[in-house]
Amino acid sequence: MLEIWAHRADLAEAAINDRHASKVWGIPGTNLGVVAWPSASRDELFLHWHYWWQAHYLDCQIDAFNRGATNVRAKRLTRTVRGIRLRNLGPLTRNRYYDDRAWMALALGRMRGLPRVHPPSTLDALEMDIIAGVDPNLGVLPWKTGASFFNVPANGPMAIMCARSGRLDLAVSVTDWISRNLINDDGIVMDGVRMSMHGPEVVTDIHPYNQGTFMGAELEIALALRGQSATPVENLEYAEADSADAYIPHIMLIRDLVQSTATHLASTHYVLNWPTTGGDGGLFNGILARYLADIALRLPADSHLNRATKRLAARMVLNSAESEWRHRLEVDGLPVFSNHWDTDAQLPRNAVPATSERGTILGSTVPERDLSVQLSGWMLMEAAARVSEKYSATRV
């Protein structure tokens, strides 16, 4: 199974390279993802380039590099970082949206320790800039500079960033705030809290990537706390382990979140299928799949409940990937992925391009035209390639 999924991930990578990868304004040694295919002149000139989409373009490249650390991939990563810095027309902190910056920090942070590639020296400044935006009263980030909307799209990625970079206290306080305020009765993460003159108003919208980032943050926190623990949980009965260490509540929450995801965000065949548009929404299910793959592979297997949770997460990743692959189109031998993983992809010709509304990129009339949708498909193939190293579809 590993060879099959690695090959499919290679084809997804090749499709992006063939249709979307381009030099920035023709400048040698740069690369970005053109936001649409087929592209218009304004797309090719990067009049619109969508900062946070490029962060996920980097993330997908890192996934591919981790499968096979080739010189070609190393050069493309370096050129993409250079392209992002060039097109941003200033330091990476030059962006009003904290969620955008947090995604960029996560992607660049994953470059630490990779052979032949290095994150920019400004990564530390980017992380500090994000943390400086935390509201001193609420202890969480607003969506953007000066906003009164405090949402999971900003705080989920920041919590992951903090847990990975050793700022564990902040990561825990942010996820505790989300857990107290933004988990609905079905166990699904809601969008955020808007502070108004009448008091806090919960925005109950469901976007599947919020489920993903919250699970991802809880996993990073649990692993960090477990690393600090002196208790050999593998040698304890599960009932004893429940009270043994601070990380156990985070593990228990992850189990509940994975089960809620399977019940409410996936089909009866365990295919992730929460309806999304193209545009920004094109990335949402792919991000959820990324963090489900992390749980399948990195959640400690020291109890039968954890092992069942890992298998369930793996099943959702592999079944979603199989469905998405089955519903793809092929153009010149390379996949065009569907925006909806359980329905056939549409050929993105003569589509009205994506537009922006109040800081959100709306989808093209044929969502498959959008880079975000194709990155999501690539992200899913990479997740399946990782998971298939340990699990097969028949075993989960």
From TrEMBL:
SUPFAM superfamilies: Six-hairpin glycosidases (SSF48208). Coiled coil: none annotated. This is Glycoside hydrolase family 76. InterPro entries: 6-hairpin_glycosidase_sf, Glyco_hydro_76, MUG_Protein, O_gly_hydro. Pfam families: Glyco_hydro_76. One of its GO terms (biological process) is carbohydrate metabolic process. Keywords: Hydrolase. GO terms for molecular function: hydrolase activity.
